[in-house]
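Entry for adenosine monophosphate complex. Fields follow.
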Amino acid sequence: MRLVLLGAPGSGKGTQAERLADRFDVVHISTGDILRQNVKDGTELGSVAKSYMDKGELVPDCIIVDMVGKRIRERDCEGGFVLDGFPRTLEQAVALDRILKDTKLGLDFVVNIEVGDAEVIRRLSGRRVCRRCGAVYHISFSPPERDEVCDRCGGELYQRDDDREETIENRLEVYRKQTKPLIQYYADSGLLKDIDGEDSVDAVFERILSAVGG
Ligand code: AMP
């Protein structure tokens, strides 16, 4: 199974991608996670990426395409993958087509998770992430048992810099301008499945599974 998940920031792409990768036993490739790991490790890529991420801007296409191209060519991706947060521009989508053609692979589906702006803002502004294991919480909808402590590993929870309210609006604007056109791009190629994402994680997961025949 080779899937792309599209959706605004806060649409639940990351959560659903993790579940889908688990269900189909394929690799979960999150460009946001790879970039954040690079920031944490203090790599050159991380320091370039951070300046864009903190403002809610997209990291330049050439950097991202190179990073994803290498990742997809790794052996563990031969059995399939779920792409989460890539592509985010038309140029990245065209580059992905090229990478897949080179590797003689094709996409099975592009799942577009639809969530309204008010819900996105509510979700992102309350999101907290574990510094150690990456588990995701929400201060109202799925709070940890102990404040600011991860239930799964005991790690410290934090708010991503780009989940602050002043940055969220910019991320939504970037999404509307640069990423939304991909919905039409993949509709034209016949791969698109639109999914209503304003429901519980379980309900949305079931909807995606029935759309992709899982
Ligand atoms: P995410 O975790 O997917 O919300 O991504 C967090 C941030 O990483 C984004 O706001 C961008 O700054 C950057 N990023 C992640 N994926 C991409 C991509 N495909 N193209 C450009 N920037 C990206």
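NOTE: The CA atoms of residues 54 and 86 lie 18 Å apart.
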